[in-house]
Structures are given as C-alpha cells and as structure tokens.
Write a structure and sequence with these properties.
Elements (H helix, E strand, L loop, with lengths): L4 E11 L17 H12 L4 E3 L12 E12 L4 E11 L3 E4 L6 E5 L6 E9 L7 E8 L2 E2 L1 H12 L9 E6 L2 H9 L3 E9 L4 H8 L2 E2 L2 E2 L6 E11 L3 H8 L17 E8 L2 E6 L9 E3 L6 E2 L2 E2 L1 H22 L3
Antiparallel strand pairs: 1-8, 1-10, 1-17, 2-3, 3-4, 4-7, 5-6, 7-8, 8-9, 11-14, 11-15, 12-13, 15-16, 18-19
Helix pairs in contact: 3-5
C-alpha cells in the first residue's frame, strides 16, 4: 500500500503571559513572531527532543515521541521559515526483517526510534494576530502533537516576558469546506456506520460475515459515486458549511450511518469533508500526486512546491474567517 502524503494546516497564535491578549506580529520589538519562531528552531537544530515517556533508568513508554530540527530555510523578507524535522516513536521492541530473506536483520530496542523527515513551513506576516503552520503527514502519522508540546515548553520561559503561550489550532473543516465547494464539484459520498447509536448498532447486528453478526469492532462504509459529480450542489453545501442547513436533509433513503463524508474536486485536487463532525480533525490536503520520492521519502523541493500551491487557497479562507 502506497503511503498517502498530506499537509495539515494550523493557526499559530501567541499570547502574553496572562494568556489574554494575542500578539500582533511586529517587524521589530517584543511581539516579532517571525524572530520568536526562528529563535526556537535554531535552539532545537540538531538537538534531540523527547516528548512523553520516563527516560533512561525507568524505560520509555510505548509511543514516546522524539524529534529534532534538521533543516531551517528562513526568508526574512517574506517572513517564511520552511524546513524539515526528523521524527519517530520509541518505547517498544520491534524486529526488522529482510524482505528478500525473511530473516531478522536488526532488533529495535525500547530506547530506539526509527525516524523519517517531515516538512514544515511557518508563515508569520506582519500586522496579523496569527500565523500559519503547514505540517507534513505520512499516512496517519504527523508531528503536530510533539512539536506543539515542545513549543509550549520553550515559550514558557521565552524572553523577558516569560510565560508567553503559543497554540496551534487546526484550520476548521467547515471553513475550508465552504471555500472548496464554492469552486469545486462533489463527486463522492461516503456513509460510515461505526455503531455509535442504537439505530446504527442494530444495522451492524443485521449484517453477518461468516455467519456471525458485526459488532463493536466492526465498521461499514458505503460509497456513492457519480461520474462527473453532482452539479447544482454548491449552494446547498455552502449552506450546510455555514450551519444554515441540516446535512442529513441532503441524503434520504439510505442505510443508517454515524458520519457522512463528501469528496469535492477542485481541478486536480480532491478534499474529503465530514458533514456530521466537521471539526473533529484538521484538514489534510492530499499532495501524494505532487511529490517526488527519494529513498522512500518526499523530497524537500517537491513538498515545498506542493505547499506553495496551497497557500493562496488557505490565505483566502483566513481572510474570511480570521481577519487581521
């Protein structure tokens, strides 16, 4: 199975030590968000940061996260900093086998973490009360939780005004959806039954595999597709995105479901949205078709180009929902 490479988008907000007033980014002075992030990245360059786990002597808990900043490419005039992090997880013993011989070639210990490069980019314009962070995801793996924890730890004691706070909040799906459906076409609907309600649990139990009914460990997905997509759905979908219409009114006479997801195509780009739970997870823009691989990992140049291609759309969403 080929890994899916994506970009998640986060809103970066600094606040004073009381957590009340957000910074308005300055070119110089104490609220220069560009310089603050640049200082952070330089302080972490080549330094191993461990998030979670107890550490030497008492062992590392499963899922212990580790990362280091491997590359920093600052563009001061544009107030953009892009680069790469090496990220991995430790805390469990794993064998590495050769696919040619089916023999174990190495055993990874609890205190070892296989790492891979992950792209990042900070956009920190002057005069705004927020910045934007673009982070690479590989499949379901991402660096946001580890990076966020380390950023908070660093800025607690940053500068003369110690106690500065920083938050990374995901770009809301409902906001992105309105922007997408305004210029795209819905071409697929996915209904998901995970047994979260009495009605959907009954539907699961009526479905049998090998003579046994489905239960709490099972999930049903039903896909509805139309070649060329559904025309005339832009305004109804925009009303749903704004909260002016009920998404369940869009689809009638189908199997019971817990979530309804739609796929919207804009040009060559396709994005999936949850209609029932739009803001449970950050938007991930699939860039798999736009990146080049080297040694099994996306190249920095191709990942950077894929992000640049997204910035105009993200900027338009933010100008609407996060004015200066």
């Amino acid at each position: 199975m080929v890994a899916q490479y994506g970009i998640s988008v986060y809103i970066v907000t600094f606040r004073d030590r009381y957590g009340r007033r957000p910074w308005t980014s300055e070119k110089h002075g104490t609220e220069n968000t560009y310089e603050a992030i640049h200082d952070y990245l330089r302080s972490r360059k080549g330094q191993l940061r461990i998030v979670g786990g107890s550490g030497p002597g008492s062992g590392y808990a499963p899922g212990t996260k580790a990362f280091s900043v491997a590359r920093i490419d600052p563009v001061a005039q544009a107030r953009i900093i892009a680069g790469a992090l090496y990220y991995g997880e430790a805390g469990s013993v794993r064998d590495v086998i050769s696919l040619d011989t089916n023999k174990t070639t190495k055993t990874i210990a609890e205190n070892e973490a296989p790492v891979a490069p992950f792209y990042y980019r900070f956009d920190l314009p002057i005069g705004l009360r927020y910045g934007v962070l673009y982070l690479q995801t590989t499949g379901q793996i991402g660096v946001k939780s580890a990076l966020s924890a380390d950023l908070k730890d660093y800025f607690e004691s940053y500068g003369a005004d110690s106690g500065t706070s920083i938050s990374l909040s995901p770009l809301a799906a409902k906001q992105a959806m309105e922007a997408f459906v305004g210029q795209g076409i819905m071409n697929e609907i996915v209904l998901v039954n995970e047994g979260r309600s009495v009605r959907t649990r009954k539907a699961l139990s009526r479905t049998h595999v090998g003579g046994k009914p489905l239960g709490e460990l099972d999930r049903i997905e039903v896909k509805i597709k139309r070649k060329g997509g559904w025309m005339g759905m832009r305004n109804p979908l925009k009303r749903i995105a704004r909260g002016d219409a009920d998404p369940t009114d869009m689809l009638k006479g189908v199997v019971p479901y817990d979530d309804m997801k739609i796929k919207v195509r804009v040009g060559r780009r396709t994005q999936q949205f949850s209609m029932i739970k739009p803001d449970e997870s950050p938007i991930r823009y699939d860039v798999s078709g736009k990146i080049d691989l080297r040694s099994g990992h996306p190249t920095f140049t191709s990942m950077d180009a894929a992000v640049v291609d997204l910035t105009a759309m993200v900027r338009g969403i933010l100008e609407t929902y996060h004015p200066a």
